[in-house]
Amino acid sequence: MFTDFLSVRWRKSANGCLLNDMSHTPGVRQAQKQQTRQALLDAGLRLLEHQNLSSLGLREVTRAVGVSPAAFYRHFPDMAGLGVALVGESLGSLHAVIRAVMAETTDSAGIIDRTVAITAEYVARHRPHIRFIARERYGGVQAVREAIAAELQGFADEVAAGLATQPASKGWSPGELRVLAELYVDHMVMTAAAFLDVAPDDTAGLEHLAHAARLRMRIISIGRAHWLDPQP
Amino acid sequence: MFTDFLSVRWRKSANGCLLNDMSHTPGVRQAQKQQTRQALLDAGLRLLEHQNLSSLGLREVTRAVGVSPAAFYRHFPDMAGLGVALVGESLGSLHAVIRAVMAETTDSAGIIDRTVAITAEYVARHRPHIRFIARERYGGVQAVREAIAAELQGFADEVAAGLATQPASKGWSPGELRVLAELYVDHMVMTAAAFLDVAPDDTAGLEHLAHAARLRMRIISIGRAHWLDPQP
DNA sequence: CGTTTCGGATGACAGTTGTTCACTGACTTC
DNA sequence: GAAGTCAGTGAACAACTGTCATCCGAAACG
């Protein structure tokens, strides 16, 4: 009954875009499949707010979704598989954000304020995702660790490319620029993780953390500006 | 039989130091207890190299030690209890190291080199402990997370106190100094975690990481030196 | 010496887990 | 409209988990 209702809903939208991207196996079947796949991901993420991926049970997830344990295998080979999928979901949308921030041409103080503000907002909007990333970055599941590391390296690549175009990078070798980019990325992760430790509605605590984050970025920024000065 | 052999061995050493420190309940009994307690900690740490604390089973640990599952409760109320004990064991000895490094009076470049070298050596010598800290810092067990956070805050306190005595800190407010100290501590943790990702015998990789760590510290150090410069 | 203390062993308890299997029935394709 | 695909089911499997009441025997104590 319920499934029927959903299938009709999905058939309509499938009719709307019949011959768009995927040629064969189009329509209701795949839509329903991706729907329960997404339900598994959502339930997993929710359960992971208070435990580690390595202690999250397969049955626990399927029970939360309301499907049989065996159904899990139609979507992921492992719990590690669900983990890597969650990494993509958590960090995938950040590439565009980073590119946008790096493309802005403002003064140093302005870009620091904006970076911290965007980080705070992103954490506020995707709390469980960020918590998952922080928790599993050095967690017990190798595949997930590697997926996160690859994603963060991608971020560092983009930041390094952005830094290279700035006039303030004159005199920096590519290797040094890469280290600076990684420092910025690690600082962003560190700040995001710190935001997780205060309640989402504790505006005073959040502002305190944001202030500290801006201060740290300013120190790094000043160090970058005086990098070529004669050393004492 | 095996227990008998051990008890005789311990009786001898207990006779050697009969009336030393603890007045009552002295000797063999406590020594044996602390011995298996340590065995539990060691086995736990070894098993935690490839998994998370929240997925580590009580029976798994006792099996590795060779004692019955019920014996675990004589030493820890929980697996979380074993976790907090491991935090103390991992980070306790670092306070002295940090104090020693902060007390040294060398030039900025020298202190950076030494800090990175000491970090690398400490990681090399206590690999499983550091891995445990990195893994559980944002892990799924609240008590352990809090224990780690408390220990790291203690480090930041000591670094802040050390920075306050340096002439380079003129013009810094206590709050700003505290942020700087936390930045140094976080950077140390970040560097230590990075060391874990390369093989212990990969000297080239280790030197590459150490080089990057020195570079990052130099950026921060320069930023600190020019903190009071008029901003452009 | 006898008595008490207590670290550890034993065995059982009720749950839970991951994985596999044949299967059903709605969607897809010809 | 018949044939095929395939997401999801239900049951069963062996293995495992944390916790408990109970007992044992060596160390500690008077």
From TrEMBL, chains A, B:
Ranges in a coiled coil: none
DNA-binding region: 57-76
HTH tetR-type domain span: 34-94
Keyword terms: DNA-binding
Gene3D superfamilies according to UniProt: Homeodomain-like, Tetracycline Repressor, domain 2
Pfam families, alphabetized: TetR_N
GO terms of molecular function: DNA binding
Record-linked PANTHER family: HTH-TYPE TRANSCRIPTIONAL REPRESSOR FABR (PTHR47752)
Official protein name in the record: Transcriptional regulator, TetR family
Organism expressing this protein natively: Actinacidiphila rubida
